Amino acid sequence: MNISKQEILEKICYTELVYERINKKLNIRYSKKQIEEFIFKTLNETDEIFFLKIGKNFYITSVENNIRITINSNSFRIITVDKIEQ
Questions:
Q1: Which CATH number goes with the domain that contains 61?
Q2: Residue 83: pLDDT above 70?
Q3: Which domain holds residue 43?
Q4: Distance (Å, whole) CA 64 – CA 74
């Protein structure tokens, strides 16, 4: 299946709880706006070869930021962001 990075960038959305989850998992203290800008920039700068669809989710791995972003493939809602070990 072809994953459209542009479609993801246009449709991503957030729940109130995901902002807290991202701050907690990444051990940061970003505002909602800062989180959205960080996620958008990360997705935009990550090559599509690092975009993977498994089941109902997209998994985007940013080696530069050492994170993996999980997005629901139906609603384009950010589920979580995890640190990755290299």
A1: 3.30.2310
A2: yes
A3: 5-83
A4: 27
Reduced to 3 states (helix: H, G, I; strand: E, B; else coil), residue 7 is helix
Sheet with strand 51-54: strands edge to edge = 51-54, 57-62, 67-72, 78-83
User: Which DSSP symbol is given to 74?
Assistant: T
What whole-number distance in Å separates Cα of residue 68 and Cα of residue 82?
Answer: 5
1 has pLDDT over 60: no
Number of domains in the chain: 1
Concatenated DSSP letters for 26-71?
HT----HHHHHHHHHHHHHHS-GGGEEEETTEEEEEETTTTEEEEE
For the record, the structure tokens of 68 come out as 């993996």
Residues 15-57: tens digit of each pLDDT: 999 999 999 999 999 999 999 999 999 999 999 999 999 999 9
